[in-house]
C-alpha cells in the first residue's frame, strides 16, 4: 500500500451495531454501500481513495468490522470485501429441522385458518428454528453447556442456561488474520471495537491504530494522580501486536447466555499509593479479577472479565468521533481543524414500531428493540453542539484579538487548568479542549425494519433461510436509502 503523508479534508467511517444473527443484514447493507460509494468515487475521478477510513463495531458488528479490516489489510484493497463478509455469514448459517421439513409451512397455514391468532408460517419457522438452536446449538456459532442448577436459592426453576461461543471464535479466526494492527501511514483502515468491563460497568474501546508513543493500548477508569504526578488511567490493556480475537469476542460476549471473556489488564495498585492518590483509596472488592505479579509497583497485572459492548454502546458513534479527534490532535499534532467525518451507521433494532404488541413474544421483541436500538442520534446532537461551541470560542478569541485584547491575557485564560476528566486522555489546560476541532459533515443511517414475521429471539436465528433474507433486505434497504439521498448525483452518473 502507498504511504500517506498529507492531511485529508474528509474521512469516511462505517459503524456496525450489535444484534446477533441480524448482523447478516449489515453484510448486505455494506455491499450496497460499497457499490454506491465506489461508483460515486469513480464518477468524480477518485481512484485511490479508500472506501472507508474507519470501521467501528460492537458485538456482532465488531466481528463484521474485523472481517472487513482484516481482508483489506491482507489484500491491500476493498475490492472483494463485500463477498468476503457474505461468505462469513454463509459459513455461520445452519439448516434447521423445521426449515428442512417440506410439510411444515402447508400444515401451519392450514392450522392458521382454524386459529386466527396464530403466527404466520414464516414466523413459526423462525420461532421453532431458534428453539432448536437453543437446545442443540449452531455448529459454527455456539453450543449449549449442561444447565447449572440453582445452588444459591435451591429453586428448581432458577436454572442457568449458558452456551459456549468457542465455535464462533474459531469461525472468526477462520476469516480473520489476527492480530489486527493497522496504521494511517500505510493507508490501512482503522478498526475500533467496544466492550464492557463487568466490574467497572463502563465501555472499553480497542483501537488498531497506535497512540502517540507508538504503542497500542487502551486506558479506562479513573485518571490517577499520585503526589502531584500523573500516573495514568486506572486500567490499561496493552496489545502492541494488534487487536486479538479475545478482544473481538469480548465485544460479543452476550450477558447471561455466554460466559465472560477474560483479558489481562494492568491495573493501578492502590496499596502502592497508600491512599495518597487524588482519587482516594479504592478497595478492589469482589470484581472477579485475579492479580498477577508484584504489588510494590504502581500497576499490577490481573485478569478482568468483559461483556458485550452492546450493553452500553451498541452503536459506538461517540467512541469513534473521540478516537478520531484523539488521533489527529494527539498523535498527528493537528491543532486546527482535523479531517471532517462522513459516517454511515447500520441499526439492526428498529427505533420505531407503530403497532403495539399484544402478545408475550411480541412484547419481548419490542423490549429488545428499544434496549438495543440506535441511540446515537442524541450522541450526534451532543457532538455537533460541542463542535459549534468550540467554533464559537475560536471566533470570540479572534474578535478579542481584533478588538485589541492582548494575546498574553488570552493565553492566560487558555492556560487555566481544566476540570474535565477525559475519556481517552487527561487534558491539563483549557486550550486542549478547543484545539483539534472536529466536524461531522453527515451521518447516513440504514435501519432494519421489523417484518410481519419477526420474533423475540431473532438474534439467535442463524437458519439458512433467515440469513439469506437478511442479506437481501440489508442490500435493498441500503440501496434505497443511498439512492434517495444521492438521487441527483447518481442520475448524472447513469
Query: What are the low-pLDDT stretches, counting only 5+ consecutive residues below 50?
Result: 276-283
| Structural class label | alpha/beta
Q: Distance N terminus to C terminus?
A: 31 Å
What global shape is seen? globular
- Nearest-angstrom radius of gyration? 25 Å
Element order, helices and strands? EHEHHHHHEEHEEEEHEHEEHHEHHHHEHH
Molecular structure report:
- It contains 17 helices and 13 strands.
- The chain has helices at 23-43, 60-75, 81-92, 97-100, 104-114, 121-136, 166-175, 245-251, 270-273, 310-313, 317-331, 360-372, 376-402, 407-414, 431-434, 464-485, 487-493; strands spanning 10-16, 54-58, 143-144, 163-164, 190-197, 202-207, 217-226, 229-238, 261-268, 290-292, 299-308, 340-347, 440-447.
- Strands 1, 2, 5, 6, 7, 8, 9, 10, 11, 12 and 13 form an 11-stranded mixed beta sheet that branches. A two-stranded antiparallel ribbon has the order 3-4.
- It starts with 9 loop residues before the first strand and ends with a helix.
Which descriptors would you attach to this protein?
alpha/beta; 494 residues; two-stranded antiparallel sheet; 11-stranded mixed beta sheet; 13 strands
Amino acid at each position: 500500500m502507498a504511504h500517506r503523508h498529507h492531511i485529508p479534508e474528509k474521512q469516511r467511517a462505517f459503524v456496525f451495531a450489535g444484534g446477533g444473527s441480524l448482523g447478516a443484514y449489515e453484510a448486505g447493507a455494506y455491499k450496497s454501500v460499497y457499490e454506491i460509494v465506489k461508483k460515486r468515487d469513480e464518477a468524480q475521478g477518485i481512484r485511490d481513495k479508500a472506501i472507508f477510513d474507519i470501521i467501528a463495531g460492537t458485538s456482532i458488528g465488531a466481528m463484521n468490522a474485523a472481517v472487513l479490516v482484516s481482508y483489506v489489510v491482507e489484500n491491500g484493497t476493498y475490492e472483494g470485501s463485500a463477498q468476503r463478509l457474505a461468505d462469513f455469514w454463509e459459513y455461520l448459517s445452519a439448516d434447521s429441522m423445521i426449515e428442512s421439513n417440506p410439510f411444515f409451512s402447508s400444515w401451519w397455514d392450514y392450522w392458521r385458518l382454524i386459529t386466527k391468532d396464530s403466527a404466520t408460517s414464516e414466523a413459526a419457522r423462525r420461532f421453532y428454528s431458534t428453539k432448536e438452536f437453543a437446545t442443540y446449538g449452531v455448529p459454527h456459532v455456539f453450543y449449549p453447556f449442561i444447565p447449572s442448577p440453582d445452588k444459591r436459592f435451591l429453586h428448581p426453576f432458577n436454572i442457568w442456561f449458558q452456551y459456549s461461543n468457542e465455535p464462533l471464535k474459531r469461525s472468526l479466526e477462520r476469516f480473520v488474520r489476527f492480530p489486527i494492527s493497522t496504521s494511517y501511514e500505510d493507508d490501512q483502515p482503522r478498526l475500533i471495537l467496544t466492550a464492557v468491563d463487568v466490574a467497572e460497568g463502563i465501555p472499553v474501546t480497542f483501537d488498531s491504530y497506535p497512540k502517540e508513543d507508538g504503542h497500542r493500548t487502551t486506558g479506562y477508569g479513573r485518571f490517577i494522580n499520585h503526589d502531584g504526578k500523573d500516573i495514568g488511567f486506572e486500567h490499561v490493556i496493552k496489545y502492541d501486536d494488534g487487536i486479538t480475537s479475545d478482544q473481538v469476542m469480548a465485544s460479543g460476549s452476550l450477558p447471561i447466555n455466554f460466559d465472560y471473556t477474560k483479558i489481562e489488564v494492568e491495573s493501578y495498585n492502590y496499596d502502592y499509593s497508600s491512599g495518597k492518590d487524588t482519587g482516594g483509596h479504592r478497595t478492589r472488592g469482589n470484581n472477579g479479577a485475579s492479580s498477577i505479579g508484584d504489588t510494590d509497583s504502581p500497576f499490577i497485572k490481573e485478569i478482568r472479565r468483559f461483556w458485550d459492548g452492546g450493553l452500553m454502546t451498541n452503536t459506538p458513534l461517540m467512541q469513534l468521533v473521540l478516537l478520531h479527534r484523539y488521533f489527529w490532535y494527539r498523535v498527528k499534532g493537528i491543532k486546527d481543524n482535523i479531517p471532517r467525518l462522513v459516517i454511515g451507521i447500520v441499526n439492526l433494532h428498529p427505533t420505531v414500531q407503530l403497532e403495539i404488541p399484544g402478545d408475550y413474544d411480541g412484547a419481548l421483541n419490542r423490549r429488545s428493540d428499544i434496549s438495543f436500538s440506535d441511540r446515537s442520534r442524541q450522541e450526534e446532537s451532543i457532538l455537533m453542539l460541542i463542535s459549534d461551541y468550540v467554533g464559537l470560542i475560536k471566533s470570540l478569541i479572534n474578535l478579542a484579538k481584533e478588538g485589541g485584547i492582548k494575546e498574553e491575557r488570552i493565553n492566560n485564560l487558555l492556560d487555566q487548568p481544566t476540570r474535565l476528566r477525559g475519556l481517552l486522555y487527561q487534558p491539563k489546560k483549557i486550550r486542549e479542549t478547543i484545539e483539534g476541532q472536529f466536524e461531522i459533515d453527515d451521518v447516513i443511517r440504514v435501519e432494519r425494519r421489523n417484518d410481519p414475521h419477526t420474533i423475540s429471539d431473532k438474534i439467535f436465528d442463524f437458519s439458512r433461510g433467515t440469513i439469506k433474507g437478511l442479506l437481501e433486505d440489508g442490500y435493498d434497504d441500503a440501496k434505497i436509502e443511498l439512492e434517495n439521498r444521492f438521487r441527483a448525483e447518481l442520475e448524472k452518473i447513469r
